[in-house]
Specification:
- The chain is built from 8 helices and no strands.
- By secondary structure, it is mainly α.
- The longest helix is centred in the C-terminal third of the chain and has 22 residues.
């Protein structure tokens, strides 16, 4: 193993993962977010393709971003958003990370969510070109327009 792999393994040992499967790394990702462990979170993010995986508990269904928001960890939230975390993903209670931030008036975190949404919107416009009809529309409307342009009214 490389030095980096050995250091990462030592860092992740505290999570007592049952194996090196994706489900173990997903659980570790949620735990690192909950514990505000930024460095460990980065390791799990590198190993996973989907940072939005929710836990299997039917009364929880929380993803890492839910935990980072509940724990008010701006640094972890930033990492997760950069990796593609969805602030609108709902848990078993029907609450999104954005909802948790709004309920507890976490203005800094709400700004992170807004900035991430704006970056995604800008990326879509940059990729597909500026479309006057889509200016100022929410990202889901833009994506729906792109995939089904004839069936969508933009009024």
């Amino acid at each position: 193993k490389t030095l980096r792999e050995r250091l990462e393994a030592k860092s992740l040992a505290k999570y007592k993962l049952s194996d090196e499967s994706m489900s173990s790394f997903e659980m570790g990702l949620r735990q690192a977010a909950s514990y505000k462990e930024e460095k460990d979170l980065a390791i799990f993010i590198r190993r996973l393709s989907d940072v939005n995986k929710q836990d299997d508990n039917p009364v929880s269904k929380k993803a890492a971003l839910h935990w980072a928001t509940i724990k008010e960890s701006s640094a972890c939230i930033s990492q997760l958003l950069e990796a593609g975390a969805d602030e609108e993903l709902e848990d078993a209670a029907g609450k999104s990370s954005r909802t948790y931030a709004e309920e507890t008036k976490q203005h800094e975190i709400l700004k992170l969510f807004s900035d991430a949404a704006n970056r995604r919107r800008s990326s879509v416009v940059a990729f597909f070109g500026s479309t006057h009809e889509l200016s100022g529309k929410p990202l889901d409307t833009i994506l729906e327009y792109i995939t089904k342009p004839k069936s969508l009214s933009l009024i």
